[in-house]
Design brief:
Elements lengths: L11 E4 L7 E7 L3 E9 L4 E10 L2 E7 L12 E9 L2 E9 L2
Antiparallel strand pairs: 1-2, 2-5, 3-4, 3-6, 6-7
Length: about 100
Amino acid sequence: MREPKCIPPQLISIPREDAVGTRQLGFDLAQAEKVSLRVYDARGRRVRTLISGRKEAGAYTVTWTGDDDRGRSVASGVYYARLVAGGVRQEKTMTLVR
């Protein structure tokens, strides 16, 4: 009997119209996985860790409010959300406008 193929997680980025400088990031997991979701600046420096750990199967939405790991607001510019889950790495480009 063959194992069903798992669909790799798909990272989506949704600007929030109601909150300037805020992005919602969503992804679905077909099975429980170790997940890392981080935000990087245009130079590749980690700005914020949003998720780091094991997550159960399901749909997830995470809000990034435009701050770094210390809670400081970051400047307007280009940022990258990087999702690593189930051996798959995906990135989405985000433009943050203050």
